[in-house]
Amino acid sequence: MGRQAGPRGVAVAVVLLFALAGCGGSAGSADGKRDGAGGGPPAGGAAKPVTGDVLPGLVGAAEARSRLAALVVAKPGTMAGYSRDKFTHWAEQGDKCDTREVVLRRDGKNVTQDAQCRAVSGTWKSLYDGADITDAAKLDIDHMVPLAEGWRSGAAGWDAAKRKAFANDLTRPQLLAVSAASNRSKGDQSPDLWQPPDKSSWCQYGRAWTTVKSYYKLTVTPPEKAMLTTMIDTCAS
């Protein structure tokens, strides 16, 4: 027969129980596992969407579904004639600031800039992977709909002014500061080929991509549309 635990033993046991209950994985999914890119629909334990939009001009989930349904479905166009130089970026925005520095200031907290408008300090939360970043040099400004993706879904037929507006759009959810690693992992891939590893961002990502493509009247492919539907379906009702 074991010795009965005294008050001190009970207290220790309670502390241990609370410690075990509080143990969890990293943010990004309910089961504590952070899924990589390229996956399909979220599993049964999908992460809850990030609360509070961090991107400008986002439409709600219902409106995003409506706009997605209205997009023209087509095969991707060719990359013939494509060059990033045909999308003027980063444009001057006044006070020695270009679009990149404006986005860094907008998306960060306690951002300080030097006389040339360069961000010298601040903190940023990368939407795609949840990374906390304090060095602006480790951030990229991502085009939600990449320039190359825009080209093969309609921008090849635009004039230079419209391409410049697309590449420097501060009104819609087209630009955001994210970790350089996540941005370079994404490249110019559409949502069916790359998804943010932090699934809690899928709601915003799907709505943002749809908002931009709808505004610029760009086409979507069937797999792209299917994954956007999956992403928007992660939004809280």
Characteristic terms for this protein:
three-stranded antiparallel beta sheet, 237 residues, two-stranded antiparallel sheet, globular
Describe the structure.
- The chain is of the alpha+beta class and 237 residues long.
- It contains eight helices and seven strands.
- The chain has a three-stranded antiparallel sheet, with helices on one face.
- A hairpin with a 5-residue loop joins strand 3 (109-113) and strand 4 (119-125).
- Helix 2 packs antiparallel against helix 8 (222-232).
- The longest helix is centred in the first third of the chain and has 16 residues, at 7-22.
The level of helicity is 25-40%
Taking the alpha carbons of the first and last residues, their distance comes to 55 Å
Structurally, how many domains make up the residues? 1
Neighbour order of strands in the largest sheet = 3-4-5
On the 0 to 100 scale, the average pLDDT is 84
- SSE succession: HHEEHEEEEHHEHHH
- Portion of residues in beta strands equals 5-15%
Number of helices: 8
Query: The biggest beta sheet, please?
Result: 3 strands, antiparallel
The Rg value, from CA coordinates, equals: 22 Å
Q: Specify the structural class.
A: alpha+beta
